[in-house]
């Protein structure tokens, strides 16, 4: 028996509604994760130096340690933030003695950033902290997920990041 147009549209509507509800469920799960991870990232923590620093600041500190002479503009591009937002982080790192700023070259507006000894210490402590944390996280994931599932997760994250950056 051949289906008429109304029957086909009804079936498509039901399928679309089911798909919509399933996608909404997944989207809400992503929103909850993003909110919780954002809170986690913004919470200052001691990376092993006795001082508390939030995640963005410590990652920027590590970028400065790994790339002495990097500029605010370069950091803004790397971290997908405005120069103003990065400047606030730099101001805080400078006030806490982690970096020094130097005007170099013919353009005296360009400020290059260098780590102090204290900044190098924070960066190295952060890398050790992250290595331990990553090992613990991977140990936890492998209790519940296969290697293939983890690789698929990271692949999806990579494409999602490209989508958010407008690269797709």
Explain how this protein is built.
By secondary structure, the chain is mainly alpha-helical. The chain is 70% helix and 10% strand. It contains six helices and five strands, in the order αββαβααββαα. It has helices at 5-42, 55-66, 72-79, 83-95, 117-144, 147-164, and strands at residues 45-46, 52-53, 70-71, 99-103, 111-115. The longest helix has 38 residues, at 5-42.
Give a quick rundown of the structure.
The protein has helices at residues 5-42, 55-66, 72-79, 83-95, 117-144, 147-164; strands at residues 45-46, 52-53, 70-71, 99-103, 111-115.
Calculate the mean pLDDT score and round it: 90
Count of DSSP H/I helices? 6
Radius of gyration: 23 Å
What string, H for helix and E for strand, traces the elements in order?
A: HEEHEHHEEHH
Number of strands: 5
- Low-confidence runs: none
**Major sheet description:** 3 strands, antiparallel
- Name the beta content range: 5-15%
The secondary structure category is mainly alpha
- End-to-end separation in angstroms reads 43 Å
| Overall form | elongated
- Share of residues in helices: 55-70%
What is the spatial order of strands in the main beta sheet? Answer: 3-5-4
């Amino acid at each position: 028996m051949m289906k008429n147009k109304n029957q086909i549209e009804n079936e498509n509507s039901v399928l679309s509604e089911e798909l919509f509800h399933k996608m909404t469920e997944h989207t809400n799960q992503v929103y909850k994760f993003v909110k919780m991870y954002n809170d986690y990232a913004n919470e200052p923590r001691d990376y092993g130096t006795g001082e508390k620093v939030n995640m963005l600041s410590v990652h920027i500190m590590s970028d400065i340690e790994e790339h002495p002479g990097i500029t605010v503009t370069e950091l803004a591009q790397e971290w997908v933030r405005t120069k103003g937002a990065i400047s606030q982080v730099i101001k805080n790192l400078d006030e806490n003695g982690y970096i020094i700023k130097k005007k170099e070259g013919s353009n005296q507006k360009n400020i290059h950033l260098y780590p102090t000894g204290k900044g190098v210490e924070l960066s190295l402590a952060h890398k050790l902290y992250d290595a331990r944390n990553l090992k613990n996280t991977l140990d936890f994931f492998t209790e519940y997920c296969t290697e293939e599932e983890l690789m698929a997760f990271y692949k999806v994250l990579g494409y999602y990041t490209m989508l958010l950056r407008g690269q797709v």
